[in-house]
Amino acid sequence: MFTGDAQIVGHSAQDRRSHPIDDSRTPAADRRFDSIDRAIGDIAAGKAVVVIDDEDRENEGDIIFAAEKATTELVAFTVRYSSGYLCVPMTGDDCDRLDLPPMYRSNEDPHGTAYTVTVDVRTGTSTGISARDRARTIRALADADSVAADFSRPGHVVPLRARDGGVLRRPGHTEAAVDLTRLAGLNPVGVVCEIVSEDDPTTMARTPELREFADAHGLALITIADLAEWRRTREQLVTRGPVANVPTTHGTFRAVGYTGAVDGREHVALLSGRPGAPAAAEAAPPSAPATVRIHSECLTGDVFGSTRCGCGHDLGSAMDAVSAADTGVVVYLREAGAHGEGLVHTLRSLALDESAAAATPPAPTTGDLHLAAQMLADLGFRSVRLLTCEADESVLSGTGRDILAKHGIDVVEVAPAVGGNPDTAAATA
């Protein structure tokens, strides 16, 4: 049961004046945004941060702070510079524990924001709308001892249900708030509210104005994209599973299974070498670079041999090249769940564009490249010769090289795995 006020770190005007931005903690190459480490530290200390999502999404900046650190002053500050519509992102488990069902039976929000019923804490509040009352309700939502009966419904605070996996599953402010509070070592409950433009109060503030706002109030300014990248380079994204010998027409491989920690997708690494060889290179890491192909699943091409794309041809050629190498691996990344679709969606896309002779093979996403890098690192590879195909050459030679380097893997060469698929070439002639 929620029992009352705790000792909370606040944000008085004096607090803000005494905590100027430390430029030494900001990447010199880009003063527009601050480091994720700074933001996590500020959240832990009870400060607010400003978080921006992608330009092709809402393209807005939200004030975000930890719910358990909410004070009257901090809530009043947030209301003063925002839309005033304070929301409290929480995990699904906490929403269930506090009996916070969806606000409406069918979510029609264009971005899928999962609003729940609104609440006020029952004790210690009056109208529920004041900064003091909302701060108390917010702290109660973050209190692990609170129970459903502690709240009246409807109210003046809007809980939000965050997706499991945080910004790696959904790049929204809801998930960013839960991620930041969790990373700060606090209860994974945050507060978010959109910042309104002071230059034009009829619209939301955008990046240049948000930078000025953050500087004026001593707040860190970060992006959700940077938070996702921070997590991908620091958290374990895959877990190794079973190992088996797999004889194929391209040679015999050792197949090592992996399960994604965020979405549960299952991937496989096909290692070249004699049957019974170790499933990883950790026992005796190869001195020469390993031949590596990172392949994104294309069921119609890989399994059915569709001539609408060259995926199956590219995969077979890569397996031949890896099998012939002294040391090599094909990292096979499953697609189902990566984009929330799968085979039926693929068939629907093909049906909508029957006039196209060839389909574009999938290139690995940024998130999937991090998965592949962690699989390679787990297998003990530190130096690789990366095979590409026409569809993913630019991605793998640029972003792919950079991402592998972040996981301690040096790409010494980028080379084409094979020429074009003759069947696809004939179809497009």
TrEMBL record:
InterPro entries: DHBP_synth_RibB-like_a/b_dom (IPR017945), DHBP_synthase_RibB (IPR000422), GTP_cyclohydro_II (IPR032677), RibA-like_sf (IPR036144)
EC number: 4.1.99.12
One BP term from GO: riboflavin biosynthetic process
Record-annotated site: Essential for catalytic activity: H156, E194
Region of interest: Disordered: 1-30
Amino-acid positions noted as binding Mg(2+) 2 in the UniProt annotation, renumbered to this chain: E58, H173
Biased composition (Basic and acidic residues): 13-30
Known pathway: Cofactor biosynthesis; riboflavin biosynthesis; 2-hydroxy-3-oxobutyl phosphate from D-ribulose 5-phosphate: step 1/1
Top-rank lineage group of the source organism: Bacteria
Protein name: 3,4-dihydroxy-2-butanone 4-phosphate synthase
